[in-house]
Specification:
The structure is a single chain. By secondary structure, the chain is mainly alpha-helical. Helix content is 44%, strand content 7%. The chain has helices at 4-15, 25-31, 38-45, 73-84, 96-99, 105-111, and strands at residues 23-24, 59-60, 89-90, 93-94. α1 crosses α3 (38-45) and α2 crosses α3 (38-45). It starts with a helix and ends with a helix.
Length: 114
């Protein structure tokens, strides 16, 4: 079982995703030093403490698809939050060529904690 420090590391990285950008579950797990643990990222996002502000809605499947079922309340909420950041959603999917976060060297060296 993973402990809170692992989740905290994931949450810190999700907080770094800039306005108007998204990341995949796998990308977040890699940046957290947890390669191959994309499902753990999803689990950690479902365990965010109440009152913690976290842009969970910016984390998507590796193909840019929203993980919630099409038309569900969660999917609609996520789409609404993404559109507030001018991230366009078409057929429950985001164009990663346009909106994928590519951390620069400064972010990798100074903002990510290993």
């Amino acid at each position: 079982m993973y402990e809170l420090p692992t989740y905290t590391k994931i949450w810190r990285i999700v907080q770094l995703i800039p306005f108007g950008k998204v990341a995949s579950y796998g990308q977040i797990s890699d940046l957290a030093g947890l390669p191959g643990r994309a499902r753990l990222v999803g689990k950690s996002l479902s365990c965010v403490p109440e009152g913690m502000s976290l842009p969970w809605y910016k984390v998507l499947r590796s193909n840019g698809q929203i993980a919630f079922p099409v038309g569900s309340a969660q999917s609609q909420k996520q789409i609404g939050l993404l559109e507030q950041e001018d991230i366009f959603v078409f057929n429950n999917r985001i164009n990663l060529k346009i909106f994928l976060w590519h951390p620069d060297l400064h972010e990798l060296l100074w903002k990510l904690e290993y």
